[in-house]
Amino acid sequence: MNKKNFDGLDKIIPWRRLEDKDREEVMQNLVSHENWKSCFSEVAPGLLLFARQWVHSAADAEDIVQEAFIKFWRRNHKIENRALLYAAVRSIALDFIRRDSRRARREASAVGEIDEFIEPQFEFEDDTQRALAEAINFLPCEQREVLVMKIWNELTFAEIAGALGISQNTAASRYRYALTALRNALQPK
């Protein structure tokens, strides 16, 4: 046989059984992977609701949440750091809006017309839910995002402050103002 055919054989590492420490490392990776999967299933619904504030469709919100989770996971952040995860969702959503608006401007200049904004449609069980949703939509963006993060996603003011880059007192004030505005809007006249 020709020696050229066997030149790389000495570089092949022979198969070997996993040592105890290697098995432990593999199992640890599986455990942390399972932690991420359970964390995603627990936190994703709240993140979707949070992302829906900025995008037109549920599919876009899902894409944003998925992208944020993947970036978060790849950078080996701790899954307990929910504020950073919300900040990632917010940042990616804002990037998405910028990208989408640039695309819309390019398309509008090419076609010569701008499509109207389409509001997402939600199904409501009764008029009370519809009135609440309308009242929330009329809140200023800063108050609305703090309200969504606090009530539906159960974040603390410290986590909200970290996600939005504001102080805890500012987060608490925006929440208080939002509740006052909702109370005033929903009181029977």
List keywords for this structure.
189 residues, Arc Repressor Mutant, subunit A, 2 domains, single chain, Rna Polymerase Sigma Factor, Chain: A, 0% strand, mainly alpha, 7 helices, 68% helix
Summary, kept brief:
The protein is mainly alpha-helical. Helices cover 68% and strands 0% of the residues. The chain has 2 domains: 28-112, Rna Polymerase Sigma Factor, Chain: A; 125-189, Orthogonal Bundle (Arc Repressor Mutant, subunit A).
CATH topology description of the largest domain: Rna Polymerase Sigma Factor, Chain: A
Number of strands: 0
| Straight-line distance between termini | 97 Å
Structural class: mainly alpha
List the helices and strands in order: HHHHHHH
Structure description:
By secondary structure, this protein is mostly helical. The chain has 2 domains: 28-112, Rna Polymerase Sigma Factor, Chain: A; 125-189, Orthogonal Bundle (Arc Repressor Mutant, subunit A). The chain has helices spanning 20-51, 58-74, 82-111, 127-137, 141-152, 157-164, 168-186. Helix 4 (127-137) packs across helix 7 (168-186), helix 5 crosses helix 7 (168-186) and helix 6 (157-164) packs across helix 7 (168-186). The longest helix is centred in the first third of the chain and has 32 residues, at 20-51. The radius of gyration is 24 Å and the shape is globular.
